[in-house]
Amino acid sequence: MKRLKTMFSSILKRGLAILSNKGKPFSPYIVIKKSKKISFPTYFLGRERMGEYDLAYSLQKIVEVALRAISPGINDPNTARDSIKYLGLILSETHGIRDGILTLRDDDHKPRVSVTVFTFNHILYNTYYQIVHYGKGDISVILSIMDSLIMIHQEVDMERKQIVYDFHQYVLHGMDMDQMQEWDLYYLNERIERLKPYQTENRGD
Question: Tens digits of per-residue pLDDT, 28-40?
Answer without folding.
Answer: 433 333 343 433 3
